[in-house]
Amino acid sequence: AEKLANVTILATGGTIAGSGASSTTTVGYTAATVGVERLIAAVPELAKVAQVKGEQVFQIASENMSDAYWLTLAKRVNVLLAQPDVDGIVITHGTDTLEETAYFLNLTVKSKKPVVLVGAMRPGTALSADGPINLYNAVLLAASQDAVGKGVLVAMNDQIHGARDVSKTNTSTPDSFKTPELGMLGYIQGNKPYFYHVSTRKHTADTEFDVSKIDTLPQVDIVYGYANVNPVALNALVAAGAKGIIHAGVGDGSLAAKVTPSLTAARKQGVLIVRASRVGQGIVARNGEANDDELDFVAADTLNPQKARILLMLALTRTSDSKQIQRMFYSY
Ligand SMILES: NC(=O)C[C@H](N)C(=O)O
């Protein structure tokens, strides 16, 4: 018989580790209560696809995710993947910020070995809980040679998504995770992953970011665009020390006349400004809705605001040159 791959499950909390008062409790349950050993014990089928080890890295609802937790997690993943006796990693995670953690790791993991994030939309106590099958699929994927070199992956609802482009798209349904226009990477069916797409953007072993010696990340905040917008929140964030601002603008990254002077003033003080869009799909192009060359702003391309924030934080650990940062937004 073939030797099974060694997969380490890093548990961080979320609804996949949640429990509710009854089998019909699908909201108002408690996230992050069940430990990694119980998650593994609930799916004995895991033993057929990998040699599984569990580690509780932290235990939080993912709305409480922070830069400090990200750094802890990325460092642990890199240490484990450098070991010859670890072939792949699964990270159990709350779904609210799962796409952000996936993208953070996509830019900071220094290995081609599979890293798969997984969560659940229903707590383990619910009827038709999705956690066990999602965990099984994630371990299967992390144990697969087919997943090597594909960047950080998300396994949810029998589908494989790439970290850069996946989003949570529904507040509660099990098919919440989608890559609407750029496309998911594949499926998991009948104990096998099937891949159809790969991202053209750089990730994992090919990135220029290194968090191994970093203990904090620069403050980057997001401001939202809307009709009748005022610059009060933006001004407050800049006054509070933001080193970068993601402007989640309307449409294709348009800037309202009432907000542009505050953005321009912030840039003159050295704050990096990235124009993104609140729309969710499509390009915010350099020198499109604004003259980025003149304003010295950066265009987010297709990254959503929360992922643009992650790239800008990591970019600022390397450079404060806006042209270099624009290059990164077209590379990652
Ligand atoms: N489905 C979930 O996991 C939601 C939960 N609030 C979390 O992100 O931790």
Automatic annotation (TrEMBL):
CDD domains: L-asparaginase_II. It comes from the Bacteria. Gene3D superfamilies: 3.40.50.40, L-asparaginase, N-terminal domain. Its EC number is 3.5.1.1. Keywords: Hydrolase, Signal. The active site is at residues 15, 95. The keyword Signal applies. It is an enzyme of class 3 (hydrolase). It holds the Pfam family Asparaginase. Residues 219-329 form the Asparaginase/glutaminase C-terminal domain. GO terms for molecular function: asparaginase activity. Residues 6-197 form the L-asparaginase N-terminal domain. NCBIfam families: asnASE_II. Belongs to the asparaginase 1 family. This is Type II asparaginase.
